[in-house]
Structures are given as C-alpha cells and as structure tokens.
Amino acid sequence: xxxxxxxxxxxxxxxxxxxxxxxxxxxxxxxxxxxxxxxxxxxxxxxxxxxxxxxxxxxxxxxxxxxxxxxxxxxxxxxxxxxxxxxxxxxxxxxxxxxxxxxxxxxxxxxxxxxxxxxxxxxxxxxxxxxxxxxxxxxxxxxxxxxxxxxxxxxxxxxxxxxxxxxxxxxxxxxxxxxxxxxxxxxxxxxxxxxxxxxxxxxxxxxxxxxxxxxxxxxxxxxxxxxxxxxxxxxx
Length: 236
Description:
One of its GO terms (biological process) is peptidoglycan biosynthetic process. It is found in: Cytoplasm. The chain is an alpha+beta fold. The chain contains nine helices and ten strands. Helix 2 (about 20-25) runs antiparallel to helix 3 (about 35-40). The two termini are about 25 Å apart. The mean pLDDT is about 90.
C-alpha cells in the first residue's frame, strides 16, 4: 500500500470526492482536499449558494436541470448576455457566453451533452484572476489575459493563448480583498492543503468569485506553481 497518494486527477471522478472518500475508507493518505470539500467545490450551484450565504460576491445565477423551463432565468433576473456551464464540469468544457435566445438554446444543447444540471449566471465583463491558497493562506494573485475570447478550454491548454502576470497589477486594497475572499472560500468549502479560486474584476473594481479548483494543475507553467514561485517556493 502506498505511503501517500499524490492526487493529480482532473474531471468528475478525480475531483468530486468519490476517490477521496474511497481512500478514507481504506485508510490511504492523499494530497489535497478531502471528500466533502471536493464534492462541494465540484458542484458549482451548491458552491455559489454557499458563497452567497457567507458574503462572498459571485455573479447572479441559478441552476437549470434537464427538462426544466429554460425561461426560468428571467424570473431570477438574469438577462443576456449570460454564461451557460455544466454544474460539475471542469476546464471550461461545455461553457458558453450567449447574447440572445438563439445562442442560449444552442448553448443549452451543448452543455446538456455533458451533464443533466447546468448553472446559468449573469455575464460579468472584466479582468480574470486566480488566487492560490495553501493551508488557508493566499498566494500572490495571478492575472490571466486570453489573447482572444475568454479563458475557455482552448485558451487553457494551447501554448501562447494567454498572457499570465504574477503578481497581478492591482491596488493593495483590491489585492487584499481578493486574497481574503480566496481564503474565505477555502474556509467555507473546507479546502484544506491547497486550492485555487477564480475571480473576475469589473470596470468598477467589483470582485466576483467564480469557482474553486480543488486539484489545480501542478506543471511548472500551471497557475498555482507560478504563484508559489513568486513567494520563493521552487517547483522541485
């Protein structure tokens, strides 16, 4: 039996808490967040509700299950443009920014290919950031600026698709506020050891928390290692 398992899985089965729960049952130690925190963070709808209940700003949104009336977003005050994404997906797979009803219907078809529950939220135009947290202490903020479009699957994994700046060029006040929210996300969701939370900052300097990642990438060019490097932590 392994002394400890280094978790480097991505996607539903690696991040939704099932493997973590199995390891707990067999007494196997592993890196990263436990099963409950993994399950909470993986469910974007549930995480969003916890953000709201704990004073963490997040875009207005609602869940939509297969078979429900797609027009329910109007009752929730969500207007176009808006964002359609699978409730438990990763790597921005199945995510669309839509500007009208036709695009909305097409985005629903695409997202429902991946799972039976979606999150629909208001579109916030702004700069994109990510904040790593280790042992509930925030790392320097990194800004992710896609050359084209938004930080989707292509831009996440195609070399040269984004410009990443760490530490991000932000005021001291915004920096502390965003880092504080990242630490609070880790506390609320129970993301022990390490995590990474994504944010948007609009033109009026309003911060919006998008989602948390319990198993962030761990290559030398991944976001969390870049942030750690600024603090003097070598990748090796």
